């Protein structure tokens, strides 16, 4: 009897998956992921760009946004220099479509403007125009925002607006301490923290080393901040990464089967398994970025 019920369920599952393509059915909402860290140079830009490529490989439409124009990290990593950035959109000199650069790798990039604080000074009409322009991004399945290290108010704005904040650390004690520091600030500065806080341990030598770092971090954030930080995964220290950086091409492109690439794909697989909150998505981003009272 039970066998039959199971067979029936299986048939239904197959029927459903035929009727609606998984990509369309499950990804109507845009997922906004901010990549951040306490200490600089721990791998945020590499993770942002290569996660975007791993998402593109499984058919997602991805936009990578460089949150800090001053550093222009993503652009350097991809060897493309966009002429225009979000500031031109805010100033109504360009549309979002015009500043977005399509890359050869199936992902698009948008250069940010340093600081959304200027938004506060916009007239209502300019603000509305900017929100309408931002709406263009809601065509994407995934928006990955690469931030600068540490906690400028700009970074906090993006984290507050996102569905997931991925915190990157390496096993270095200073990186771990700084990662804890930023998690603490996120917890205290952002009210109604309804997002997934996730940890990636980069540049590890072994699975055990990564797990040790993650266990330490999740236990201290749980104990002292009463906060759940999910261990999303690790990335091996891999010479392909530094070679890729030198060649200004993503390591997922140089060698999709290298250790770092496999780790990134695993991380994206884990992300895909964690659900986007009901209240999340593009609407939340706009509300959080513009309705500053929410914070
Ligand atoms: N998994 C890895 N294996 C080997 N080297 C790595 C790895 N991840 C990062 N690196 C090295 O660390 C450098 C810094 O990486 P990346 O630019 O992604 O860091 P970042 O956190 O974005 O830095 P910043 O804070 O300056 O923006 C890279 O140029 C690369 O050489
Ligand atoms: Mg960077």
Order of helices and strands: HHEHEHHHEEHEHEHEHEHHHH
Our count of domains comes out at 1
Spatial arrangement of strands, main beta sheet: 3-4-2-5-1-6-7-8
Average predicted confidence as pLDDT: 85
What is the element layout, followed by pairings?
Blueprint: H1 2-19, H2 22-26, E1 31-36, H3 44-57, E2 62-66, H4 73-78, H5 86-90, H6 96-99, E3 101-102, E4 108-111, H7 124-134, E5 142-146, H8 153-161, E6 164-169, H9 173-189, E7 196-204, H10 207-225, E8 229-236, H11 239-246, H12 251-254, H13 259-273, H14 282-290
Parallel strand pairs: 1-5, 1-6, 2-4, 2-5, 6-7, 7-8
Antiparallel strand pairs: 3-4
The chain binds adenosine-5'-triphosphate and magnesium ion.
Q: Which properties best describe this structure?
A:
about 300 residues, alpha/beta, Rossmann fold, 8-stranded mixed beta sheet, 14 helices, 8 strands, about 50% helix, about 15% strand, globular, binds adenosine-5'-triphosphate, binds magnesium ion
Describe this structure in words.
The chain is an alpha/beta fold and 295 residues long. It has one domain (28-294): 3-Layer(aba) Sandwich (Rossmann fold), CATH 3.40.50. Helix content is 49%, strand content 15%. An eight-stranded mixed sheet has the order 3-4-2-5-1-6-7-8, with helices on both faces. Strand 6 (164-169), helix 9 and strand 7 (196-204) form a beta-alpha-beta unit. The relative contact order is 0.17. Mean pLDDT is 85; it is low at 15-27. Residues 37, 40-46, 71, 73, 149, 202-203, 235, 237-238, 241-242, 245, 260 line the site of adenosine-5'-triphosphate.
């Amino acid at each position: 009897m039970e066998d039959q019920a199971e067979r029936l369920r299986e048939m239904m599952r197959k029927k459903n998956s035929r009727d609606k393509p998984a990509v369309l059915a499950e990804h109507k909402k845009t997922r906004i992921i901010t990549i951040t860290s306490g200490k600089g140079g721990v791998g945020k830009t590499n993770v942002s760009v290569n996660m975007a490529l791993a998402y593109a490989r499984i058919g997602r439409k991805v936009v990578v946004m460089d949150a800090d124009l001053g550093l222009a990290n993503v652009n350097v990593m991809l060897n493309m220099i966009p002429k225009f950035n979000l500031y031109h959109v805010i100033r109504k000199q360009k549309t979002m479509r015009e500043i977005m650069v399509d890359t050869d790798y199936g992902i698009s990039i948008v250069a940010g403007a340093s600081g959304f604080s200027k938004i506060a000074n916009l007239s209502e009409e300019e603000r509305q125009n900017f929100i309408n322009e931002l709406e263009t991004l809601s065509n994407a399945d995934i928006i990955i925002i690469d931030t600068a290290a540490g906690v400028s108010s700009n970074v906090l704005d993006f984290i507050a607006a996102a569905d997931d904040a991925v915190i990157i650390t390496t096993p270095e004690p200073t990186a771990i301490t700084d990662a804890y520091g930023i998690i603490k600030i996120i917890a205290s500065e952002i009210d109604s923290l309804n997002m997934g806080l996730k940890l990636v341990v980069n540049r590890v030598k072994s699975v055990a080393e990564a797990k040790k770092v993650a266990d330490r971090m999740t236990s201290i954030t749980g104990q002292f901040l009463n906060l759940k930080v999910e261990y999303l995964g690790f990335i091996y220290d891999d010479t392909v990464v530094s070679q890729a950086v030198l060649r200004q091409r993503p390591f997922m492109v140089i060698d999709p089967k290298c250790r770092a690439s496999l780790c990134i794909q695993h991380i994206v697989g884990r992300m895909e398994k964690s659900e986007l909150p009901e209240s999340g998505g593009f609407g939340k981003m706009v509300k959080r970025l513009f309705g500053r009272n929410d914070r």
